[in-house]
Design goal:
Chain lengths: 247, 368
């Protein structure tokens, strides 16, 4: 594959139902390379399902997902994707270093352990058992596991839930540093102040993309000053416009 | 399939066990405790059933039988009067008592009838049978000593194709229990470990990595099989050299059967953990999987003595074949040239393949 596609992620008319629940309802969006893209939406809006579609954990009922130029599902492309789940998915009975070594080994990136530890500032806690770490440290360790193999695309599912403001700022500085190096970052959130740090935002509700654009564009669209108001206003008008009939 | 990724999973599983002292203790101490306790229960030189002898015989034959009974190795018999014996039976201090009536010798001479009256406590079959057997032996020995030379004597010549007079119930049970203990512990630990992988979210992470399903299953299998190998080796050494279980066959062959059974247990654990949402639910699979095999695989009661329809069930359980194979090797000295052992090993091997495939197939379906 010599041609570098312009978009890191292309989602086209993707729908997914779980029983009677329509988690994704014909969603389409495109994320450019090197972009920090925020998926914004309330709980249960379909953010996590969409992210899981991107790594092939969820098979859509309809539509196509293309990641880094490859149609998903594609096992090979996963080596270039980093995925950080909502909860810090680590082995609690292993040390930080053992966790990192494991995720490095399955990605063929054993050489990067020290560097990843340094990146999340856990070098001095490398021997600590994960179960004994604080929540913030666990989040950092989980992040280190997600980017140990230098992915081209980093998917972060609500990475800052339960993280104190100081660490949140630190994490976001890191995300932006990585984006500056050309890594595409997709981050889901329902926290508006961090949405402001994304280059582009996709507003998701009821499995649909309601609006898309930079934080400034969204504010302008809704004619409000705060992003939070923009979100509320845009989802209200969209729901009224499409005659959303949810019980 | 990449050997590097399989190795990563195996190494991780072993590291997790290194940190988890309690599970290690379960794996390596529990079998010793179980088998050790059985040794005490089945071979314990503890108590023989207590038997009272009430000798009212006016002739000498009652006394002759009584002396032999007192020196019996099956029971511990002591003379007493009828009231004490009856009280002892009711209070539970005696398993039974024997009365030689006043006309015991007279009837023996005139009617050729030896009729000791045996009173048993009766609520426990085991000691009762032992008392009757001891009385039988004493009477037979007494007759032989009384009959004149030239009269027929009872001296059966017993020869053994396998085993021998020294073979006891622990030899018989132990051979099967080696298989059961390894199967049970490995099954429990794998199903809980794999369930934890899912509940803590790491399985999702694995499925979003370049790992293939087969690599996960094989990595798990090797990791747990390494542990099962160590455990099997420990159980075998303990059984053969501490408990001195009868073994007529080759140790590597026993090891082979046990290891195949451990592989079945690992993959059955992975497979079934897909159907449990919590560790509590996973524990509920234990009676479901272990109880039928404990009862029906011929460990306690030979499969051939089950009613026909139940034998059908027994014949689909993998442990039935492992138990049969282990007994053939240890008690009969079977080797792989025996067609029965070939059948047992092939069936267990077949089960390995089936559960490995099942574990692999269910893995993706249940992860989301």
């Amino acid at each position: 594959m010599s041609t570098r596609p312009e978009y890191a992620v292309e989602v086209k008319d993707v729908a997914k139902t779980f029983g009677r629940l329509r988690a994704l309802d014909g969603i389409s969006l495109r994320i450019r390379r090197g972009e920090v893209y925020g998926l914004l939406g309330p709980n249960g809006s379909g953010k996590t399902t969409l992210i899981r579609c991107l790594v092939g954990l969820v098979q859509p009922n309809a539509g196509t997902v293309t990641v880094l130029g490859r149609r998903i599902p594609d096992l090979g492309v996963l080596a270039r994707v980093g995925y950080m789940t909502q909860a810090a998915a680590l082995y609690p009975d292993l040390s930080v270093e053992e966790n990192l070594r494991f995720f490095a080994a399955i990605n063929g990136a054993e050489a990067n352990v020290d560097e990843a530890l340094k990146f999340v500032e856990l070098s001095d806690r490398r021997k600590s058992i994960v179960a004994t770490l604080s929540g913030g440290m666990r989040t950092r360790a989980s992040m280190a596991c997600a980017l140990i193999h230098h992915p081209d695309l980093l998917l972060l599912d609500e990475p800052t839930v339960g993280v104190d403001p100081q660490l949140r700022v630190q994490l976001w500085d890191r995300f932006q540093a990585m984006a500056a190096e050309g890594i595409t970052i997709v981050v889901s959130s329902h926290v508006m102040d961090e949405a402001d740090r994304c280059q582009r935002l996709g507003l998701i509700r009821f499995g649909k993309l309601l609006a898309e654009g930079s934080p400034q564009e969204l504010r302008r669209m809704a004619r409000v000053d705060r992003l939070e108001d923009a979100f509320l206003k845009l989802s209200a008008t969209s729901a009224a416009g499409s005659g959303e009939g949810r019980p | 399939m990449s050997a590097r990724r399989v190795r990563a999973i195996t190494v991780r599983i072993l590291a997790q066990f290194r940190h988890d002292r309690r599970t290690l203790a379960l794996l390596f101490v529990a079998p010793i405790v179980i088998l050790g306790l059985l040794d005490f229960l089945l071979r314990g030189s503890g108590s023989h059933p207590a038997v009272g002898i009430v000798n009212l015989d006016q002739g000498g034959i009652g006394g002759n039988v009584a002396t032999r009974l007192e020196s019996s190795s099956l029971v511990s018999a002591s003379p007493m009067d009828a009231t004490a014996a009856d009280r002892g039976l009711r209070e539970g201090s005696l398993a039974g008592y024997v009365v030689f009536a006043a006309d015991f010798s007279t009837r023996a001479v005139s009617e050729h009838v030896l009729a000791p009256q045996v009173h048993l406590e009766g609520s426990q079959p085991g000691p009762g049978q032992q008392v009757v057997a001891a009385v039988d032996q004493a009477v037979v020995a007494a007759i032989s000593s009384l009959t004149a030379a030239g009269a027929p004597r009872l001296t059966p010549q017993v020869s053994y194709l396998y085993g021998g007079p020294g073979l006891d119930s622990l030899d018989y049970l132990g051979a099967a229990l080696i298989g059961l203990v390894v199967f049970f512990l490995v099954f429990v630990i794998t199903s809980v470990a794999f369930l934890r992988e899912r509940s803590q979210g790491t399985l999702e992470r694995l499925m979003a990595s370049p790992l293939r399903r087969a690599e996960i299953v094989v990595g798990y299998m090797i990791g747990f099989t390494v542990l099962a190998l160590l455990q099997s080796a420990e159980v075998l050494l303990f059984s053969l050299y501490v408990l001195k279980l009868h073994n007529a066959g080759s140790v590597p062959l026993i090891f082979l059967v046990v290891v195949l059974m451990a592989i079945v247990a690992v993959n059955l654990g992975i497979f079934l953990s897909m159907f449990a949402r919590t560790e509590f639910q996973a524990v509920q699979f234990i009676p479901l999987v272990v109880a039928p095999q404990l009862l029906l695989s011929g460990i306690l009661v030979p499969v051939s003595s089950e009613p026909g329809w139940l034998q059908v069930v027994s014949n689909v359980l993998p442990l039935t074949y492992a138990v049969d194979g282990l007994r053939d090797v240890m008690l009969k000295g079977a080797d792989l040239s025996w067609s029965v052992l070939q059948r047992d090993t092939l069936v267990v091997l077949g089960y390995c393949v089936v559960v490995i495939v099942l574990a692999g197939l269910t893995l993706r379906r249940r992860v989301a």
